[in-house]
Amino acid sequence: MFKATSVFALASLASIVNAQSSPISVWAQCGGIGWAGSTTCVSGLQSMYPSASTTGSASATSSPAPTSSPPVSSVANFWFSFGDSYTQTAFSPAGNPPQVGQPLGNPPYPGGTTTVGPNWIDFDTAMFNNSLILTWNYAYGGATIDASLAPPFTPTVLSLTDQVNEFLSGTANKPVVAPWTSNNALFSIWIGINDLSWSWWQTGDRLAYNDVLLDADFALVDELVSPCRRRNFLFINVPPIQRSPYFLGLDPSETNETAPILQSVIEDFNTKLAARASNLSSTLTGVKTFLWDSYTAFNQILDDPSAFGS
Ligand SMILES: *[C@@H]1O[C@H](CO)[C@@H](O)[C@H](O)[C@H]1NC(C)=O
Ligand SMILES: *[C@@H]1O[C@H](CO)[C@@H](O)[C@H](O)[C@H]1NC(C)=O
Ligand SMILES: *[C@@H]1O[C@H](CO)[C@@H](O)[C@H](O)[C@H]1NC(C)=O
């Protein structure tokens, strides 16, 4: 029912910086749809978004509340998605819910994405789908797993912890608009990009810190699993952000040294993520896990962009 075959826009490869500037701020969303903060970009980073004033798009927070129950097909499948700017569509759980004809709810398709056009979750929900999928996409640009472990660029960013709490206090309770069951629901988590971009240049044992990050990640997964223990999980690993155009554009006298460090931190995180995902399904009866290896997929694209139409 779910296919994760979309080709990601290379423009969405997030950037990374050296330890001397302010690494968090260059990851920041700086302007555009749904963005009420400063529109001043850190030097070296262009706004990833068109300005809201030029697009005229409604921001997620101004979406009107539903006036009556929207049409929900009895054959719908449900997707609850958590992540960062690679996944965000600027969905607001308080606005119009996903429904037949608007499978991602608000804002109107494709929502507020980093690519400006449809992103992977848009494509997989509405184009590569083999069934009707209604997607609650809690992903939030700039998100880390938990702000106390890896601080986001600004305190208003909803971390994975915040996103899971939004789900638990809302759609988890199966409102009329979301009559999901353990069997027809998928939970996806694509997180770690911002955590590692903040983490790798810090002092201390970074590989040990990956365990700390993943402990927090999987504590949240445990909350999603309980109490029924019958859930489908899709995990997506961290792509090779040390190969992003932004990183490659930095001073080679630094990145020649730092790229392999970042790469080793990412690869360690991904290896541990895969082990934990596999452990989850082998130790908990009824839990199925899927892993989409974005690390390998992005490398294939970056190795031969022209084969992918670039
Ligand atoms: C895929 O999603 C679109 C948008 O919700 C829907 O119109 C279409 O019927 C779905 N495709 C299938 C095969 O169910
Ligand atoms: C960085 O690495 C590339 C490729 O190995 C090499 O051509 C270049 O001279 C190096 N630059 C610096 C400043 O070390
Ligand atoms: C495997 O999963 C079980 C049950 O969730 C947990 O207690 C254990 O610590 C996990 N082991 C590893 C290596 O992650």
Automatic annotation (TrEMBL):
Domain CBM1: 27-45
Annotated Pfam families: CBM_1, Lipase_GDSL
Gene3D superfamilies (UniProt xref): SGNH hydrolase
Keyword Signal assigned: yes
InterPro entries, per the entry: CBD, CBD_sf, GDSL, GDSL_lipolytic_enzyme, SGNH_hydro_sf
Domain of life: Eukaryota
UniProt keyword terms in alphabetical order: Signal
GO cellular component: extracellular region
Signal peptide: 1-19
Gene Ontology biological process terms in this record: carbohydrate metabolic process
UniProt-annotated stretches for the region Disordered: 92-111
GO molecular-function terms, A-Z: cellulose binding; hydrolase activity, acting on ester bonds
PANTHER family linked: GDSL ESTERASE/LIPASE EXL3 (PTHR45642), SGNH HYDROLASE-TYPE ESTERASE DOMAIN-CONTAINING PROTEIN (PTHR45642:SF139)
Protein name: CBM1 domain-containing protein
Source species of the chain: Rhodocollybia butyracea
Phylogenetic lineage: Eukaryota, Fungi, Dikarya, Basidiomycota, Agaricomycotina
